[in-house]
Structure formats: structure tokens, C-alpha cells
Design goal:
Radius of gyration: 27 Å
Distance between the termini: 29 Å
Strand order of the largest sheet: 1-2
CATH architecture of the largest domain: 2-Layer Sandwich
Order of helices and strands: EEHHHEEH
Shape: elongated
């Protein structure tokens, strides 16, 4: 079965586990679509986890029942007690450090990944603009039409709260021709168009479908506290298209 990673947008011909081989992030998928051996392994993993939880519960209940008797004050003066307290502090400190380290790793997103996310957000915003107005912004209107009303009667934006440059401080390129899909891209790290590191959106992003229309509100209402600028803003935040 063919898969597409929802994070890095890479196509995956064969999925051996619920984890993208390109970006390494786990995906929420139905294990029934995996081959039987993989589905069995995933199911066994869940069963092992369930048995471990049950074993911990049983140990907890047993220890709790053992502690129902009176505790001697002399217990708190034994070397064993202080050693146990030290072990607990070491374990808690290790767990807190590990959690903080994992959190920091998750927050690290490469400029290339941010650029991919930005162009997809712009493409989706353009699709919603086209749904309302009936056409994409002209070359003169540019991407700024997603932020402020270009004077179109059916404009119902803003579609993003702020238009900024790409992660390499270069403006996104936008080109539009009548009757054709527009072009929106980032020139990438070399800041030159037409090279291998250009970043283009997923073509499907231009078609946001119709599910969003029932609850649609403009960016001003969707993002409380955000001021939508009426002139070209100084980059200060990432485009928000959802």
C-alpha cells in the first residue's frame, strides 16, 4: 500500500513500521493495513505493555497492603532508608533530565522543514482565497492579498495572519497566469531560483476541499490577539493558515 508522511510529505512505497523512514516521526495508521507479521509485532508490543502495567498495579497493591501495619520510627534512622531516598532522588532527576532533553530535541525543526511547512500553508491559503474570490491573486496583488483585502467583492480573509520571508530571509516567489495554477516557492538556502534546493508545496495543498467552509472564519477571528497589518509587515511570526 502507498503511504505519504503527514510531516515531511515523502512518499513511502513499503511501510515496515508506523514510522517514517525519512524524518523518523511516528504516524497514526491503522495496523490492519500493515502486513501480518508487522501487525502481529505491533499487537504483541501492546500486549507486553498491558501486562507490564498490570504487574505494576499488583506490586503496588501488595506493597500497600504490607504498609498497613504500624511503621517503626527506627526505620527512618537506618542506612537502608537513606540509601533508598538517594536512589529515588537519582531516578527522579534522571527521568526529568531525559524528558527535558527529549522535549528539546522535538522542538528542533530544520530550516528546510520550516520552509516546506510555510509553502504548504501559503498554497492552502491560496486555495481558500480562490474558493471565495473565484480566482487566484494576480501578479500585482501577490501574496499580500492573503493578508489584506485587495478590493475583491467576495474576499473573506485574512487567510493568513502575517506574510513573512522564508527561513533564509528571502521573500517567497509568487507567479500567476490566467487559467493556470499559480507558482509559489522558496528559493531555499542558496537564495537562487531554479536550483535543486528550491522548495515547492504539495500540489494537493492548493485544493483545501470543502469541509472547512462550514466553520470558516477569517484569521483575525481564528487567532485572538493577532493584529492583521494593513501594510507590508516586518517579519515577526510564521504564516498561520489553519
Amino acid at each position: 500500500m502507498h503511504y505519504r508522511c503527514p510531516y515531511c510529505k515523502h512518499d513511502i512505497e513499503e511501510l515496515r513500521e508506523p514510522k517514517c523512514p525519512h524524518c523518523g516521526r511516528y504516524m497514526a495508521i491503522n495496523t490492519t493495513f500493515l502486513d501480518k507479521s508487522i501487525a502481529k509485532a505491533v499487537g504483541e508490543k501492546h500486549r507486553v505493555r498491558h501486562r507490564s502495567i498490570e504487574r505494576i498495579k499488583r506490586n503496588y497493591k501488595r506493597k500497600r497492603s504490607e504498609m498497613h501495619g504500624q511503621i517503626s520510627p527506627s526505620l527512618f534512622k537506618t542506612p537502608t532508608f537513606y540509601f533508598g531516598v538517594m536512589v529515588i532522588f537519582v531516578l527522579v532527576g534522571t527521568l526529568l533530565f531525559s524528558a527535558a532533553e527529549k522535549s528539546a530535541v522535538r522542538k528542533k525543526v530544520s530550516p528546510f522543514q520550516r520552509g516546506m511547512r510555510h509553502v504548504d500553508v501559503l498554497a492552502e491559503a491560496l486555495g481558500r482565497y480562490q474558493f471565495h474570490v473565484g480566482k487566484f491573486p494576480t501578479m500585482d496583488q501577490g501574496l499580500a492579498a492573503l493578508v489584506r483585502d485587495p478590493g475583491e467583492p467576495k474576499w473573506f480573509g485574512p487567510y493568513i495572519n502575517l506574510l513573512r520571508k522564508d527561513p533564509w530571509d528571502t521573500p517567497f516567489i509568487y507567479e500567476a497566469k490566467a487559467g493556470q495554477m499559480p507558482v509559489v516557492l522558496s528559493c531555499g538556502p542558496d537564495k537562487q531560483r531554479g536550483t535543486a534546493d528550491d522548495i515547492l508545496p504539495d500540489p494537493e495543498s492548493f485544493n483545501p476541499g470543502t469541509e472547512w467552509t462550514n466553520g470558516w472564519v477569517s484569521a483575525t477571528e481564528r487567532l485572538p490577539g493577532v493584529t492583521v497589518l494593513s501594510e507590508d509587515p516586518t517579519p515577526a511570526a510564521e504564516p498561520q493558515g489553519r
